[in-house]
Amino acid sequence: MSTPPEVRIGIVGYGMMGKAHSYGYREAPRLRHLPVQPRLRLISGRRRDLVKKAAAAYGFEEVTTDWRHLVERKDIDIVDICTPPGTHAEIAAAAAAAGKAVICEKPFATSYTEGAQALDAVRRAGVLNAVGFNYRRLPAVSLMKRMIDEGAIGQLQLWRGCWLSDEFADPQTPFDWRFDRPMGGTTIADLGSHLIDMATWMAGGIAEVSAQSETFVKERADPDKPGTTRPVTIDDASSGLIRFIGGSRGVLEVARSCVRRACDFTIEANGSKGTLRFDYARLNELQFGDGTDPAHLYGMRTIRAEHPSHPYAASWWPIGQGVGYGSSFVNQFADLLERWPAGPWDPDFRQGLAVQAVCEAMDRAAAERRWVRIEEVATS
Ligand SMILES: NC(=O)c1ccc[n+]([C@@H]2O[C@H](COP(=O)([O-])OP(=O)(O)OC[C@H]3O[C@@H](n4cnc5c(N)ncnc54)[C@H](O)[C@@H]3O)[C@@H](O)[C@H]2O)c1
């Protein structure tokens, strides 16, 4: 069998997501038969010693300390952005202008205006573009979407998502980019962008939102200036109500201040004939309450989302072995590379911007204590 042609990857940022994306590219061709072979060509980071160490661990050939150099390099086909949200739009626009396909981690941007500029840049350049909403690619989440589309729960009425973590629970955690609005965005956007992506994927576009937010730890130690603190400019926790364009209603809660909650998220859809519920702590399972079951079977059944008939499952392990977080990245890059170079890629920057509009509308609704129509953000 002939070797497929190479597609050369340049990743900007070597932190947690640089690691997860590298893993995804490396494993994708082992799990799925792809038309191209990803080659981990170049990775960038601001500190040479650290980026060199990461490059060796992740399997990259070369390093640079300047993302602009990475974006301009002739031997890079895909620029993959794994840096803090406040840097995404500028890097994405530069990569598009250099003719590269662009993959951007979530949240797409820290403002609708910046995100719209990045979308405009990829459209003008005519390059493929994608946003890293990886949780869509978990078999059970993907099965939930498929079952909703197939009518398993009838007419969708309610959609709810809740994401709790303890990332910010300790007041001693020092200040970093995640607490800084211009660089980190908000908790609404950090955790909520994943939920809003899944909500709109399953229940359609959002018309308006209301919300409340709170920052419990208002100052944090500044690691750059010992003995001083910096004000926290983002929300620790937010919750909101959603009206979908199609008529269904939703509830969303995100918090990074919940003691002893790790990365605990649940999503649930209630329809006229049934209920579907996913709990990330049991990510190979999907709960299904089928209203057409006979009365003596009343309750929710557990579907093992590992059967070869389920989305993604056939490329993985035999039923009973399960997959994990890393598999969502393998599935993500296999889906994208499968469509190289013609595309289309999905979810793309247009969807990233639509999600950003909802995040921003929630933020505005909380600040102004009122319902905010998405159009208010999306047209400003
Ligand atoms: N999809 C997911 O499951 C998931 C999980 C975690 C984070 N994320 C997202 O991935 C992105 C990166 O998060 P992370 O957890 O990898 O962060 P991280 O702090 O672990 O790594 C950030 C990387 O960006 C670099 N960097 C930091 N500040 C920079 C700046 N001002 N300019 C250029 N480079 C800078 C750092 O050197 C590092 O290489 C964020 O947008 C985050 O929301 C996604």
Characterise the protein shown here.
The chain has 380 residues and is α/β, with parallel strands linked by helices. The chain is 34% helix and 25% strand. It contains 12 helices and 17 strands. The protein has helices spanning 16-31, 48-58, 67-72, 85-97, 112-125, 139-149, 181-184, 187-190, 192-203, 325-338, 349-368, 374-378, and strands spanning 6-12, 37-44, 62-64, 78-81, 101-104, 129-131, 156-165, 206-214, 219-221, 229-231, 237-244, 249-255, 263-271, 274-279, 285-290, 301-304, 372-373. The strands form 3 sheets. The chain has a 9-stranded mixed sheet with strand order 16-15-14-13-7-12-11-8-17. Helix 1 crosses helix 10 and helix 5 packs antiparallel against helix 11. The longest helix has 20 residues, at 349-368. The model has no long low-confidence stretch (mean pLDDT 97). Nicotinamide-adenine-dinucleotide (NAD) binds next to helix 1 and helix 4.
